[in-house]
Amino acid sequence: MDSENKETQENSFPPFRGEPTAVDTEKCPNCGDNLEFDPEKGCLKCPSCGTLKEIETRAGQEIAFSELSKPNGGWQNQTHVYHCANCNAEEVLDKREIAHVCPFCGSPSVVEREEIDTLRPNALLPFLLDLPKASAAAIRWAKKRLFAPRDFKTYFRPEKLHGVYLPAFTFDTNTDSAYQGRLGEHYYVNVRSNGKTVREQRTRYFYIQGTYQQFFDDLAVSATDAVPPSVMRTLMHYDYHNCVEYNDDFLYGFSALLYSRDGQTCWADARSMADKSIRQGILSQYHYDEVSYLNVSTNCFNVTYKYLLLPMYTGIYPYKSKTYPFYINGRSGKVKGKSPVSPIKAAIAAVLGVAAAVAVGFLIWYIGQ
């Protein structure tokens, strides 16, 4: 059964919790309307007369880790923040825009906050998908929901999609590790037992020690609790090497979230990711069947970070008195969401699963005879 349809706490997709911000507007030089960022063109575009204006871009730069705790200021002067009283979302919006509803829970209970004190992003990955392409990706996703009711797949239309930039930190670091441990390799011997020859597994242990170096590029950690971890694990595969220097122009027509997890907290997560990869790298050098123990001591140096914004579309689809949230990667178009489950289809799948298990069990029994 599709794991996305399992009723677990993690993928129940709770209401959005975060804060969005806004930036000053720029007017069309021809008709005076507000320019908006066009993901297809990669520049500002006037929705009224179609005038285009290029955005000067530079590659996003790494910042020394020692600067992470220092205020870089300025964002609160360029944006304003709306707080959702229903789900505690905090959204950063264009100065010209007014938040009427929360992009995550749909509640109209949003009020402007007077002050914010937060890091200003230094990098950003612009949207590549416009609304029509994001909608098409969501429709394709809905049609592939194996256990969803037929009418859900037939009539699903992603109305009121919101383009939101999600906060994240990426870290680069060199690592130097010293390790020692004991591994075991299995071998088999034939022994006589009760007049029969049986094959027994035994383990030959050996000790290891040494040093291991590894460089990590763009260890990416989500800085918001607004989107469920299961969604971020699926959709947070971005082309980080293509990030550009933060520019307010990219937010015209979109919103952004304030981070709810600071840089130090995200660095701790990045360290855990690095530690896991280092252990795997060390063990990959040896042939073994089991790990008795492995102690690793790692030093991280030349650590740098980027505080960047990641593009994502959010939507909520109502179906039979319930709402089902879904999320779309704003660059790749990959979709993650929750859909209703047809009881009939689920029952059929359960029966087929039991039948398959019985068949496999019978086959194993038959072969063993």
What does it look like?
With 369 residues, the protein is α+β, with helices and mostly antiparallel strands. 21% of the residues lie in helices and 37% in strands. It is built from 6 helices and 16 strands. The chain has helices at residues 75-78, 131-143, 150-155, 229-235, 263-283, 343-368; strands spanning 19-22, 36-38, 43-45, 52-53, 63-64, 80-84, 90-93, 110-113, 123-124, 162-193, 196-222, 244-245, 255-258, 290-319, 322-329, 335-337. The strands form 2 sheets. Strands 1, 5, 6, 7, 8, 9, 10, 11, 12, 13, 14, 15 and 16 form a 13-stranded mixed beta sheet that branches. It starts with 18 loop residues before the first strand and ends with a helix.
